[in-house]
Amino acid sequence: VGRLINGFSVGICSAQVPVYVSELAPPSLRGRVVGAQQWAITWGILIMYYISYGCSFIDGNAAFRVPWGLQMIPAVLLFIGLLFMPESPRWLARKDRWDDCQQVL
Description:
Elements: H1 2-24, H2 30-55, H3 62-82, H4 89-94, H5 98-104
């Protein structure tokens, strides 16, 4: 069940995060910002690969738990940062909050 939920969550985030980032970025920087976001994801995958490889030499449950715990650090920071992000301008426009929409843009 956890893998199913994780799979749907990653799929939704992979589709929605670039849209949200491009909505908030100035038009002249949109491509670079979305590209930098994807580049950061790729670096994160590479770093986690090497951490997991290094932890594969640990005996017992720690070989699994250490990488899993380390993944939670950026996830928690991202969750906290998410609380300070503005709503999507598209969502604000759908709710007829045009003043807030212009302020976010």
